[in-house]
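Private note to self, pasted from the team thread so I don't lose it. Backbone tokens:
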């Protein structure tokens, strides 16, 4: 008897690569160039950073579906730091960005029927996030021609009458590309004309690797429902605090109805803890020192990566504008799987293969820019040596 839903895949075995990584870890220390947990990357957190989680105000429970006003105001002020105007009453608190996706899919999708368009290459969790909420994922391509832009033909091919939302990730994980003016206009116009929402995942927006990001014009006064996603997990390196948010913008009547409907969704779960809402303002203020260290770290590792790789062994680092990851294009003389397995078994270095992020062809490696600098540089040199040994 099968009592289980197909939302959870029948085959849940770890991949061969995940098993090889587990074996390498069991053999001894590895240089892990895939780590994205900021709390285990040698970043110094102020010891009293979480003090306000035990503020006495948190002893009183006042269920507030969209979130406590002070937390929403503090997040609106944080948008102002980025030069973006968002009204506090258009901000909805969630426990994480992942939960924000789940809430939005409930808001927008007809169970089992509606589809959402997701970019490739991008964040692999979209497979589970869509499937678990009963919406169909359809992919549109980002194409690389010295920079990554939306392949609008593939976007139009993916679009169906049942498309309710388009996802864009800016800066994108793992390409580090940001949505520019032209792509923002194409996405927003289509979403307006075809009555879909635009979900903009900005979790890495505080991490420009070069020049500061410029806000695309189409996102300033969006013609469609625009749902910006953010959260403490990346903005101040506190994934365990479990606070994310959705900031709504677009035509006022659509925003008002979305908020009204979201109130029902959020009231059903009331998932965001009171202590983190009480502490949100101080976390956002005091967490700035963590953000600054992470920014220094990803910039330093990005510079080291480009200095070490710099074309030798036929490898190149693709240009990136922001985020916590980097993409290395390597000669396709052996498959990504073979190269990544060799790195694991011969060098005890863990990297991601491009196919993990659905790159359209081989061969790419993806590394996190978060590891400690010495570890990162040593690991990248071993990657470089392994490419030479081909
Ligand atoms: C693009 C992107 N969105 C969302 C998340 C998840 O963020 P959260 O911890 O807020 O769920 C990640 C995590 O790596 C990510 O890469």
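Design output:
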């Amino acid at each position: 008897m099968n009592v289980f839903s197909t939302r959870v895949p029948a085959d849940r075995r770890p991949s061969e690569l995940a098993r090889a990584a587990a074996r390498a870890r069991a053999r001894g220390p590895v240089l892990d160039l895939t780590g994205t947990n900021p709390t285990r990357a040698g970043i110094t957190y102020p010891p009293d950073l979480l003090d306000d989680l035990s503020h006495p105000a948190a002893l009183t429970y006042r269920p507030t579906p969209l979130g406590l006003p002070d937390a929403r105001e503090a997040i609106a002020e944080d948008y102002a730091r980025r030069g973006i105007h968002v009204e506090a009453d258009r901000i909805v608190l969630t426990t994480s960005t992942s939960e924000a996706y789940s809430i939005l899919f409930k808001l927008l999708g007809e169970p089992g029927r509606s589809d959402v368009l997701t970019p490739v290459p991008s964040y692999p969790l979209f497979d589970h996030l869509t499937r678990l909420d009963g919406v169909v994922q359809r992919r549109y391509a980002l194409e690389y021609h010295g920079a990554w832009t939306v392949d609008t033909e593939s976007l139009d091919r993916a679009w169906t009458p049942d498309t309710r939302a388009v996802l864009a990730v800016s800066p994108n994980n793992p390409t580090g590309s940001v949505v520019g003016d032209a792509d923002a206009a194409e996405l927003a116009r289509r979403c307006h004309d075809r009555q879909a929402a635009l979900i903009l995942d900005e979790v890495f927006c505080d991490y420009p690797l070069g020049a500061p990001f410029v806000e695309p014009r189409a996102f300033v006064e969006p013609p469609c429902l625009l749902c910006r996603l953010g959260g403490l997990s990346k903005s101040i390196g506190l994934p365990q605090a479990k606070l994310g948010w959705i900031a709504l913008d677009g035509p006022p009547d659509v925003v008002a109805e979305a908020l009204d409907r979201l109130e029902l969704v959020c009231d059903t779960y009331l998932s965001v803890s009171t202590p983190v809402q009480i502490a949100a303002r101080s976390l956002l203020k005091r967490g700035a020192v963590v953000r600054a260290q992470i920014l220094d770290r990803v910039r330093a590792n990005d510079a080291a990566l480009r200095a070490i790789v710099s074309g030798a062994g036929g490898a190149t680092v693709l240009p990136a504008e922001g985020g916590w990851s980097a993409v290395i294009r390597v000669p396709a003389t052996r498959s990504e799987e073979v190269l990544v397995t060799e790195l694991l078994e011969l060098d005890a270095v863990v990297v991601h293969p491009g196919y993990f992020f659905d790159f359209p062809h081989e061969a790419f490696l993806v590394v996190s820019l978060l590891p400690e600098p010495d570890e990162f540089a040593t690991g990248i040199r071993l990657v470089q040596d392994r490419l030479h040994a081909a």
